[in-house]
Write a sequence for this structure.
């Protein structure tokens, strides 16, 4: 079952499926009583995740997405406006993605679909997005995701100018600072702060929290505990380079 | 239905299970679901350990997954086979690390860094 079929199945098996018939329903309908009702038992995204504390459907049901391979040279013009991507060639082919006109019903499914589209299609995602206007709700995060790598100085300078789709990131993790307070100034110094695309920020944060073969099955955060400032800086800068933010 | 213990599963079943888990992990990565990603990480390690413990080190059965059309499957297969096929596995990590838009490029790229610095020593 592909994503579209799975999406439709979820949609029409909902007890409030009639609410989903309205075109642009997002603009017309508020949440149903059932959806709005507070329940302390409703699962939340666990702490440590960028969405930590937000409501979730609690499911990890798989969705099957068609695979499109985009080579490193595919994608749009890095210097041009992503709002007006000009098709210099064919949209990458493969199983053609179909974007639902309505947003997937949960944050989890929205993140999966949008990030899958952005990573596979690059800036062409805006061409594919014509079918689903809801995707423009995430325009800032998507556009910033396609930023080319910048110099460290550029990233530091940008930290003084917060912007939609970007987060201020600590090169050396705040969480790793010495408990005796001796590194408080270093952690929040301008040299340790960079403005980076939000999804890249979340990708780095997640990487720090996930066990890794590289570090003897520890998480990078566990591995770095007690390491010197210079070692933590090195790893922090490597992560920025490898995620594609830093030149 | 309860799944058979890993020790009783045929090698082909273990490869299938490894693939399924890595695909689930791909979704968790896309969703920034750290808890689920971690849960699946340990499930994948159990399968890798089981294959490694079998006569002749059966991790080589994961090598075809280096060409699987999903980057999370490729990364997990590469890291599971670095010790027995370092050239092929590393080349997959290098390829993914160079992708422009890939949620897997950070992990792949950092593994290359850690291999080169001697921090990551596959066994």
């Amino acid at each position: 079952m592909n994503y579209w079929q799975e999406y439709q199945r979820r949609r029409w098996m909902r007890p409030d499926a009639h609410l989903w018939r309205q075109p642009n329903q997002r603009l017309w309908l508020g949440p149903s009583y059932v959806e709005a009702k507070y329940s302390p038992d409703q699962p939340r995204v666990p702490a440590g995740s960028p969405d930590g504390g937000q409501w979730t459907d609690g499911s990890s049901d798989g969705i099957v997405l068609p695979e499109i391979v985009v080579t490193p040279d595919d994608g749009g013009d890095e210097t041009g406006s992503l709002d007006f991507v000009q098709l210099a060639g064919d949209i990458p082919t493969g199983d053609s993605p179909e974007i639902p006109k309505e947003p997937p019903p949960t944050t989890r499914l929205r993140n999966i679909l949008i990030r899958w589209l952005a990573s596979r299609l690059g800036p062409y995602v805006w061409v594919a997005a014509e079918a689903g206007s809801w995707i423009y709700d995430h325009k800032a995060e998507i556009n910033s995701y396609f930023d080319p790598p910048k110099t460290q100085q550029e990233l530091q300078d940008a930290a003084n100018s917060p912007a939609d789709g970007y987060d201020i990131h600590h090169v050396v993790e705040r969480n790793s600072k010495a408990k005796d307070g001796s590194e408080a100034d270093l952690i929040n110094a301008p040299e340790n702060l960079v403005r980076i695309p939000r999804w890249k920020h979340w990708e780095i944060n997640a990487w720090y929290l996930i066990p890794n073969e590289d570090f003897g099955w520890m998480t990078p955060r566990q591995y770095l505990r007690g390491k010197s400032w210079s070692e933590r800086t090195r790893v922090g800068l490597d992560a920025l380079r490898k995620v594609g933010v830093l030149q | 239905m309860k799944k058979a213990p890993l020790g009783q599963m045929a090698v082909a079943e273990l490869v299938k299970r490894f693939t399924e888990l890595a695909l689930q992990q791909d979704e968790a990565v896309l969703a920034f679901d750290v808890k689920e990603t971690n849960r699946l990480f340990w499930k994948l390690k159990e399968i890798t350990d089981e294959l490694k413990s079998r006569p002749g080190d059966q991790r080589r059965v994961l090598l075809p997954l280096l060409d699987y059309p999903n980057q999370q499957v490729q990364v997990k297969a590469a890291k599971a086979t670095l010790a027995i096929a370092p050239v092929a596995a590393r080349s997959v990590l290098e390829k993914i690390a160079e992708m422009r838009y890939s949620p897997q490029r950070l992990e792949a790229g950092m593994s290359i860094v850690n291999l080169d610095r001697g921090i990551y020593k596959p066994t």
